[in-house]
Amino acid sequence: MWPYPRIVAHRGGGTLAPENTVAGLRAGLARGFHAVEFDVMLSRDGIGMVVHDPEFGRTVAGQGSVAGTDAVDLANMDAGSWFGAEFRGERIPFYTQFIDFCKAQRIWMNVEIKPADGFEAATGAWVAKVTRDSYAAELAAGDPAGYPLLSSFSYEALAAARDTAPELPRGYLLDTIPADWQQQAQALGAIAIHTNHKHLTAGLAAQIKAAGYGLFCYTVNDPERARAILGWGVDGFCTDRIDLIGPTFA
Questions:
Q1: What DSSP string describes 18-42?
Q2: Which positions are catalytic?
Q3: Each residue of 149-201: pLDDT tens digit?
Q4: What is the pLDDT of residue 250?
Q5: Residue 250 belongs to some domain of the structure
Q6: Domain for residue 25, yes or no?
Protein backbone atom coordinates (compact mmCIF):
# COMPACT_ATOMS: atom_id res chain seq x y z
CA MET A 1 0.00 0.00 0.00
CA TRP A 2 2.87 2.41 0.76
CA PRO A 3 6.28 1.48 -0.69
CA TYR A 4 7.54 5.01 -0.05
CA PRO A 5 9.43 6.74 2.78
CA ARG A 6 7.36 7.22 5.91
CA ILE A 7 8.59 10.67 7.01
CA VAL A 8 8.72 13.37 4.33
CA ALA A 9 10.16 16.89 4.54
CA HIS A 10 7.39 19.40 3.85
CA ARG A 11 8.21 21.74 0.96
CA GLY A 12 11.88 20.86 1.30
CA GLY A 13 13.33 22.24 4.48
CA GLY A 14 10.30 22.72 6.66
CA THR A 15 10.94 25.47 9.19
CA LEU A 16 14.71 25.52 8.52
CA ALA A 17 14.78 27.08 5.03
CA PRO A 18 12.54 28.91 2.57
CA GLU A 19 9.89 26.57 1.24
CA ASN A 20 9.98 25.11 -2.26
CA THR A 21 13.59 26.13 -2.94
CA VAL A 22 16.81 24.26 -3.64
CA ALA A 23 18.05 25.64 -0.32
CA GLY A 24 15.11 23.82 1.26
CA LEU A 25 16.14 20.58 -0.39
CA ARG A 26 19.66 21.03 0.94
CA ALA A 27 18.34 21.70 4.44
CA GLY A 28 16.36 18.47 4.35
CA LEU A 29 19.36 16.53 3.11
CA ALA A 30 21.48 17.95 5.92
CA ARG A 31 18.97 16.40 8.35
CA GLY A 32 19.09 13.05 6.59
CA PHE A 33 15.86 13.39 4.59
CA HIS A 34 15.70 11.63 1.25
CA ALA A 35 11.99 12.30 0.77
CA VAL A 36 10.34 15.63 -0.03
CA GLU A 37 6.89 17.07 -0.71
CA PHE A 38 6.55 20.20 -2.82
CA ASP A 39 4.17 22.08 -5.11
CA VAL A 40 4.18 22.67 -8.88
CA MET A 41 2.22 25.42 -10.64
CA LEU A 42 2.28 26.55 -14.28
CA SER A 43 3.72 29.87 -15.40
CA ARG A 44 1.96 32.04 -17.98
CA ASP A 45 3.87 30.30 -20.75
CA GLY A 46 2.98 26.85 -19.45
CA ILE A 47 6.16 25.83 -17.60
CA GLY A 48 6.03 24.05 -14.25
CA MET A 49 7.52 26.07 -11.39
CA VAL A 50 8.02 24.97 -7.78
CA VAL A 51 5.90 27.41 -5.81
CA HIS A 52 2.88 27.20 -3.51
CA ASP A 53 0.99 30.49 -3.60
CA PRO A 54 -0.73 31.55 -6.83
CA GLU A 55 -0.29 35.24 -5.93
CA PHE A 56 2.91 37.06 -4.99
CA GLY A 57 3.24 38.68 -1.59
CA ARG A 58 4.15 35.96 0.92
CA THR A 59 7.25 34.11 -0.29
CA VAL A 60 7.82 36.34 -3.32
CA ALA A 61 7.74 40.12 -2.91
CA GLY A 62 5.56 42.33 -5.06
CA GLN A 63 2.24 42.11 -6.84
CA GLY A 64 1.21 39.69 -9.55
CA SER A 65 0.66 35.99 -9.98
CA VAL A 66 2.46 32.86 -11.09
CA ALA A 67 -0.09 32.21 -13.83
CA GLY A 68 0.37 35.78 -15.09
CA THR A 69 4.18 35.68 -15.28
CA ASP A 70 6.51 33.91 -17.72
CA ALA A 71 8.79 31.20 -16.37
CA VAL A 72 12.04 33.05 -17.14
CA ASP A 73 10.84 36.00 -15.06
CA LEU A 74 9.64 33.78 -12.22
CA ALA A 75 13.03 32.06 -12.18
CA ASN A 76 14.69 35.43 -11.52
CA MET A 77 12.48 36.28 -8.54
CA ASP A 78 13.80 36.15 -4.99
CA ALA A 79 12.05 33.41 -3.02
CA GLY A 80 14.40 33.43 -0.04
CA SER A 81 14.61 36.90 1.49
CA TRP A 82 11.24 36.58 3.21
CA PHE A 83 12.67 33.74 5.27
CA GLY A 84 16.03 35.25 6.21
CA ALA A 85 18.78 37.50 4.92
CA GLU A 86 21.10 34.52 4.46
CA PHE A 87 18.70 33.21 1.78
CA ARG A 88 18.56 36.42 -0.21
CA GLY A 89 18.70 35.62 -3.92
CA GLU A 90 17.29 32.11 -3.61
CA ARG A 91 15.16 31.69 -6.74
CA ILE A 92 11.85 30.12 -7.66
CA PRO A 93 12.98 26.80 -9.18
CA PHE A 94 11.85 25.15 -12.37
CA TYR A 95 10.22 21.78 -11.72
CA THR A 96 12.87 20.20 -13.95
CA GLN A 97 15.54 21.73 -11.72
CA PHE A 98 13.98 20.00 -8.71
CA ILE A 99 13.82 16.73 -10.62
CA ASP A 100 17.52 16.96 -11.50
CA PHE A 101 18.52 17.71 -7.91
CA CYS A 102 16.34 14.98 -6.42
CA LYS A 103 17.52 12.36 -8.88
CA ALA A 104 21.15 13.25 -8.27
CA GLN A 105 20.70 13.06 -4.49
CA ARG A 106 18.33 10.07 -4.54
CA ILE A 107 15.47 12.02 -2.99
CA TRP A 108 11.98 10.58 -3.38
CA MET A 109 9.39 13.14 -4.47
CA ASN A 110 5.74 13.61 -3.53
CA VAL A 111 4.76 16.14 -6.19
CA GLU A 112 1.67 18.13 -5.35
CA ILE A 113 -0.02 19.42 -8.50
CA LYS A 114 -1.07 22.93 -7.43
CA PRO A 115 -3.03 24.48 -10.30
CA ALA A 116 -4.05 28.11 -10.44
CA ASP A 117 -7.78 28.54 -10.96
CA GLY A 118 -8.74 27.66 -14.50
CA PHE A 119 -5.56 25.69 -15.20
CA GLU A 120 -6.41 22.43 -13.45
CA ALA A 121 -6.33 20.05 -16.42
CA ALA A 122 -3.37 21.77 -18.09
CA THR A 123 -1.30 21.62 -14.91
CA GLY A 124 -2.12 17.98 -14.20
CA ALA A 125 -1.27 16.94 -17.74
CA TRP A 126 1.99 18.94 -17.87
CA VAL A 127 3.28 17.64 -14.53
CA ALA A 128 2.40 14.06 -15.43
CA LYS A 129 4.07 14.21 -18.84
CA VAL A 130 7.30 15.79 -17.59
CA THR A 131 7.48 13.41 -14.63
CA ARG A 132 6.84 10.36 -16.80
CA ASP A 133 9.46 11.41 -19.34
CA SER A 134 12.02 12.20 -16.64
CA TYR A 135 11.53 8.86 -14.90
CA ALA A 136 11.14 6.61 -17.94
CA ALA A 137 13.97 4.29 -16.90
CA GLU A 138 12.72 4.04 -13.32
CA LEU A 139 9.18 3.34 -14.48
CA ALA A 140 10.48 0.61 -16.77
CA ALA A 141 12.36 -0.94 -13.84
CA GLY A 142 9.03 -1.28 -12.03
CA ASP A 143 10.05 -0.36 -8.47
CA PRO A 144 7.48 2.20 -7.25
CA ALA A 145 9.88 3.50 -4.62
CA GLY A 146 12.10 4.63 -7.49
CA TYR A 147 9.73 7.18 -9.02
CA PRO A 148 7.51 10.00 -7.73
CA LEU A 149 3.98 9.99 -6.40
CA LEU A 150 1.69 12.71 -7.78
CA SER A 151 -0.99 14.23 -5.55
CA SER A 152 -3.52 17.04 -5.75
CA PHE A 153 -6.57 18.55 -4.09
CA SER A 154 -7.90 19.15 -7.61
CA TYR A 155 -9.94 16.25 -8.92
CA GLU A 156 -9.67 17.66 -12.44
CA ALA A 157 -5.88 18.00 -12.25
CA LEU A 158 -5.44 14.48 -10.93
CA ALA A 159 -7.77 13.11 -13.59
CA ALA A 160 -5.69 14.83 -16.26
CA ALA A 161 -2.54 13.32 -14.75
CA ARG A 162 -4.19 9.90 -14.81
CA ASP A 163 -5.13 10.27 -18.46
CA THR A 164 -1.69 11.58 -19.47
CA ALA A 165 0.51 9.15 -17.54
CA PRO A 166 -1.58 6.36 -16.02
CA GLU A 167 1.58 4.51 -15.02
CA LEU A 168 2.46 7.17 -12.43
CA PRO A 169 0.94 6.56 -8.97
CA ARG A 170 -1.50 9.12 -7.62
CA GLY A 171 -2.62 10.21 -4.15
CA TYR A 172 -5.90 12.06 -3.69
CA LEU A 173 -5.59 15.03 -1.36
CA LEU A 174 -8.59 15.71 0.88
CA ASP A 175 -8.77 18.18 3.76
CA THR A 176 -11.66 16.25 5.27
CA ILE A 177 -12.75 12.77 4.20
CA PRO A 178 -16.16 12.87 2.46
CA ALA A 179 -18.64 10.00 2.50
CA ASP A 180 -17.91 9.17 -1.14
CA TRP A 181 -14.12 9.26 -0.81
CA GLN A 182 -13.69 5.71 -2.09
CA GLN A 183 -15.77 6.25 -5.22
CA GLN A 184 -13.72 9.37 -6.03
CA ALA A 185 -10.43 7.59 -5.37
CA GLN A 186 -11.46 4.64 -7.54
CA ALA A 187 -12.44 6.94 -10.41
CA LEU A 188 -9.05 8.66 -10.20
CA GLY A 189 -7.18 5.38 -9.96
CA ALA A 190 -5.56 6.69 -6.78
CA ILE A 191 -3.47 4.35 -4.67
CA ALA A 192 -3.50 6.53 -1.55
CA ILE A 193 -5.49 9.09 0.37
CA HIS A 194 -3.59 12.15 1.59
CA THR A 195 -5.39 14.09 4.30
CA ASN A 196 -5.17 16.66 7.07
CA HIS A 197 -4.24 14.82 10.24
CA LYS A 198 -6.33 17.30 12.26
CA HIS A 199 -9.54 15.88 10.78
CA LEU A 200 -8.51 12.23 10.78
CA THR A 201 -9.85 9.75 13.34
CA ALA A 202 -8.77 6.24 14.20
CA GLY A 203 -12.00 4.95 12.68
CA LEU A 204 -11.52 6.75 9.39
CA ALA A 205 -7.92 5.58 9.23
CA ALA A 206 -9.02 1.98 9.73
CA GLN A 207 -11.68 2.35 7.02
CA ILE A 208 -9.18 3.69 4.48
CA LYS A 209 -6.61 1.03 5.27
CA ALA A 210 -9.21 -1.76 5.17
CA ALA A 211 -10.18 -0.61 1.66
CA GLY A 212 -6.60 -1.19 0.52
CA TYR A 213 -5.35 2.38 0.22
CA GLY A 214 -2.18 3.97 1.45
CA LEU A 215 -2.78 6.73 4.01
CA PHE A 216 -0.58 9.82 4.17
CA CYS A 217 -1.09 12.88 6.39
CA TYR A 218 -0.07 16.53 6.31
CA THR A 219 1.45 18.48 8.12
CA VAL A 220 2.42 16.77 11.39
CA ASN A 221 4.76 18.83 13.56
CA ASP A 222 4.21 17.36 17.02
CA PRO A 223 6.01 14.09 17.87
CA GLU A 224 3.23 12.88 20.16
CA ARG A 225 0.62 13.40 17.46
CA ALA A 226 2.90 11.67 14.96
CA ARG A 227 3.14 8.59 17.17
CA ALA A 228 -0.63 8.57 17.68
CA ILE A 229 -1.53 8.57 13.99
CA LEU A 230 1.15 6.02 13.16
CA GLY A 231 -0.51 3.86 15.78
CA TRP A 232 -3.77 4.17 13.83
CA GLY A 233 -2.08 2.67 10.77
CA VAL A 234 -1.13 5.89 8.95
CA ASP A 235 1.62 4.98 6.49
CA GLY A 236 3.44 8.28 6.35
CA PHE A 237 3.30 12.01 6.83
CA CYS A 238 5.09 15.22 5.96
CA THR A 239 6.47 17.57 8.57
CA ASP A 240 7.81 21.10 8.86
CA ARG A 241 9.69 20.23 12.05
CA ILE A 242 12.52 18.29 10.48
CA ASP A 243 14.54 19.38 13.50
CA LEU A 244 12.19 17.45 15.85
CA ILE A 245 10.95 14.58 13.67
CA GLY A 246 13.73 12.94 11.72
CA PRO A 247 13.56 10.54 8.79
CA THR A 248 13.87 7.51 11.09
CA PHE A 249 11.24 8.71 13.57
CA ALA A 250 9.33 5.96 15.32
A1: -TTSHHHHHHHHHTT--EEEEEEEE
A2: 10, 52
A3: 999 999 999 999 999 999 999 999 999 999 999 999 999 999 999 999 999 99
A4: 87
A5: no
A6: yes
- Tell me whether residue 244 is in a domain: no
Q: Compute CA distances 183 → 5, 79, 96, 124, 222, whole Å.
A: 26, 39, 33, 20, 32
DSSP string, 141-201: HT-GGGS-EEEES-HHHHHHHHHH-TTS-EEEEESS--TTHHHHHHHHT-SEEEEEGGG--
Q: Is 29 a residue whose pLDDT tops 90?
A: yes
Alpha carbon of 123 to those of 169, 226, 231, 245: distances in Å?
16, 32, 35, 32
Find the domain containing 225 and state its range: 7-239
Is residue 247 in a domain?
no
CA torsion 125-127-130-131 (nearest 10°) is -120
User: How many domains, the chain?
Assistant: 1
Instruction: Taking residues 98-108, report their average pLDDT.
Output: 98
